[in-house]
Amino acid sequence: MKRLIFLGPPGAGKGTQAKLLAEREKLVHISTGDMLRSAVAAGTELGKQVKGIMDSGNLVPDKLIVDLIAERILQTDCKNGYILDGFPRTVAQAEALSAMLQQRNEKISQVIFFEVTPEDLRKRLEYRRGAEARVDDSVETQIERLQVYEKQTAPLVDYYQKTRSLKRVDAAGTVEEVFKKLQSVV
Ligand code: AMP
Q1: What is the mean pLDDT of the chain?
Q2: Residue 111 forms beta bridges with which residues?
Q3: Active-site residue numbers?
């Protein structure tokens, strides 16, 4: 039973790798970004609340996202394990997750940190703007997201390193190459 966290800057390829590994290992892929985008597309109350924040590249409030995850990981399909992709993104979210799991005598099996050089990251984000045409992927939003990552999410590398659950994966290379490296550490 694996409970994994995928950590890394936007554009590191977490989402792609999470999909592949989820399929291979029969895990549920939980992407908070995808959940929020669905809410925006469906025009739900939550969607209306977060649209502007997402478009600007900022993070939605911790409480909102923690509640969303708390509800999601309780669902029966998560019994056999899951990959958290895009959550936690702040130390407060990581602490809330840890408390949530502790209550049920559960814990995270591994945190996978996707390492990528700034040059590779720039190339990937440029490619993604062209290839995926995500509505929240303008240049300004991407730059803002990177800054937010450095300030609010990067401290989680140290946070999880202290718990000894952090494994690093060099995210350079093709999707297949990175997937091989990922499989060798999971
Ligand atoms: P992503 O697809 O993971 O890049 O997420 C897209 C956007 O959704 C982010 O830029 C945030 O605005 C929001 N978001 C996703 N996950 C989180 C999270 N864990 N905490 C706060 N905001 C999030």
Answers
A1: 93
A2: 5, 166
A3: 14, 89, 128, 134, 145
DSSP 120-161: HHHHHHHHHHHHT--TT--HHHHHHHHHHIIIIITHHHHHHH
E-state strands within the chain: 2-7, 28-31, 81-85, 110-115, 166-170
Ligand 1 centroid–CA 154 distance in Å is 14
Q: Hey, which of 29, 31, 32 would you mutate to test ligand 1's pocket, going by the most ligand atoms within 8 Å of its Cβ?
A: 32
Q: pLDDT tens digits for 82-133?
A: 999 999 999 999 999 999 999 999 999 999 999 998 888 888 878 777 776 6
CA 145 to ligand 1: nearest atom: 10
* Beta-carbon count within 10 A of 104 CB: 9
More confident residue, 124 or 19: 19
Residue carrying structure tokens 């803002």: 144
Closest-lying ligand 1 atom to the alpha carbon of residue 50:
12
Contact at 8 Å (CB) between 17 and 123?
no
Q: Could you give the 3-state DSSP secondary structure of residue 168?
A: strand
124-170 confidence digits (pLDDT tens): 878 777 776 665 667 788 888 999 999 999 999 999 999 888 999 99
